[in-house]
Amino acid sequence: MSDKKWTLLLATLVIAFMYLLIQFMISTYENQALIQHLSEHETDLGSKPHVMLISQELDNPYWRLIEQGAKDAANQLGMALEYVGPLRINTDEQTTLLEKAIAAKVDAIIVQGVHNIIYKRLIDKAVDQGIAVITVDADSADSKRYSYVGTDNIESGRKLGELVVEADKKSPRSGNTNIGIMIGSNLAENQMLRLEGFRSVVSQHRNLRIVDVRVSNISRIEAAQKASEMLYMHPEIDMIVGMSALDAVGILQAVKNSDRDNIRIFGFDDLEETKQAIARGEIEATIVQNPYRMGYDAVTLIHDALEGIQPPPVHLMDIGVLAKDGNGWSDGR
Q1: pLDDT of 168-200, one tens digit each?
Q2: How many Å apart are CA 120 and CA 117, to the nearest integer?
Q3: For residue 16, how many other CB atoms are within 10 A of its CB?
Q4: Is the pLDDT of residue 20 over 80?
Q5: Quick one: 128 exposed, middle or buried, by C-beta within 10 A (0-12, 13-18, 19+)?
Q6: 1: pLDDT confidence band, cut at 50, 70 and 90?
Q7: Closest by CA position to 269, among listed 306, 312, 218
Q8: What is the largest CA-CA distance in the chain?
Q9: Angle at which helices 247-258 and 272-279 pack, to 10 degrees?
Q10: Distance CA 168, CA 266 (A)
C-alpha cells in the first residue's frame, strides 16, 4: 500500500477515534450532571412521601404533561414529587437514574417500562426493598411493578390502522397504497405494540403495503431525516405514519422539503404543532393519548399503595382521534 493510502487510512482512523471519544465525553458529562441533580434533591424533602418520576426524555413536551399531572396529584395528596430524566433519549441514563432512586431509598418510583432485562431486574429490586413502582406510558409487564398506567398500545395501533384504511377508501387514487412507518424507539414496548396493532389491521387489506419502518429516537430532527431517507429510497410511498409524539411534525418537514405534497401523514399525540398542521390540512389525523391524566392517576395509585390499598395491575387511559374533520379531545383536567 502506498504512503498516501496509509496516511489517508491513518487520518480516517484518527477522526473516527476522536469522534467516539467526544461522544463518550458528552455522554459522561450528561450522566454526571443527571446524577448530581438527583443527589441535590435527596435531602430537605421533609416528612412527605418521596416519589421519583423518571421520564424518557426530560424536556419532551409529552413527558412534561405527565409531569404536570403528577405534580398536581402530589400537591393535592401531600406528596413530594421529583421529576428527572435523560437530557436526550438514552436507556442507559434511564437505568442509572433508576439505580440512583433505589439507592436513595425513595418511597415510590414512577417510570417508563423499557424492554431490557437489567431494567426489569432493577424494578424487581426496588419492589423487593419496599419501594412502590408503577410503570407509565410503556409497561414492564414481566416485572414486579405494582401497576401499569397508560394507553392500550395494541388497541391504539389498531385505531391508527383503521384511520389509514378509511382514508385510503376515500382517496380518489386507485391501486396499491405504499406506507412508510416511523416509530420512536425499537426498545420501548409501547412503540412495538403500536406497530403490532397497526400491522394487524393493515395486513387484512391487500392494497395496503408497508414498505419501510424506521426509528426516530423520539426526535423531530431524526424523524425528518429518516422520512427524507424513506422518500428517497421509496419514491412509491404514498403515506407515512408516525407512532411517537414528534414523528408527525418531523415527517411533515421532510415532505415539505421534498415537494411531495401528495404524501398523506398520520401521527400520534396532539402537540400544538401537530394540531396546527391538522387544522391546515397538512396532517390527516393523529391518535390522542392523555399524558396529563397518566401522571395524575399514577401518583394517585402510588398514594393508595402507600396507604395499603393494592392498585389494579393495569390502569388504562381512553384514546381519542383528532382529524381534519374537527373531531377533538379533552385532556380531562
Answers
A1: 888 766 568 999 999 998 888 899 999 999 999
A2: 5
A3: 10
A4: no
A5: exposed
A6: low
A7: 218
A8: 75
A9: 50
A10: 12
From the CB of residue 150, how many other CB atoms can be counted at a distance below 10 Å? 27
d(CA 310, CA 302): 9
Report the distance separating Cα 319 and Cα 270, nearest Å: 11
Torsion from C-alpha of 75, 76, 79, 80, nearest 10 degrees: 0
Nearest-angstrom CA–CA distance, 226 and 215: 7
**Residue that the C-alpha cell 396546527 belongs to:** 276
The DSSP secondary-structure symbol of 311 reads P
The amino acid that residue 211 corresponds to is V
**Helix, strand, or coil (residue 147):** strand
Which are the contacts of 204, defined by CB distance < 8 A and separation ≥ 6?
A: none
- CB-based contact 251:240 (threshold 8 Å): yes
DSSP string, 60-104: -HHHHHHHHHHHHHHHHHT-EEEEE--SS--HHHHHHHHHHHHHT
Strand-pairing partners, residue 83, are 53
Q: What is d(CA 242, CA 278) in angstroms, rounded to the nearest whole number?
A: 14
From residue 81, give the alpha-carbon distance in Å to each of 70, 75, 104: 8, 8, 14
User: And the C-alpha cell for 108?
Assistant: 415510590
Rg of the chain over Cα atoms, rounded to whole angstroms, equals 22
For residue 2, what pLDDT band results from cuts at 50, 70 and 90? low
- Specify the DSSP element, H or E, that contains 180: strand 177-183
* 4 SS3 class: helix
Contact between residue 135 and residue 144 where contact means Cβ atoms under 8 Å apart: no
CB–CB of 194/153 below 8 Å? yes
Backbone angles phi, psi at 306, to 5 degrees: -70, -20
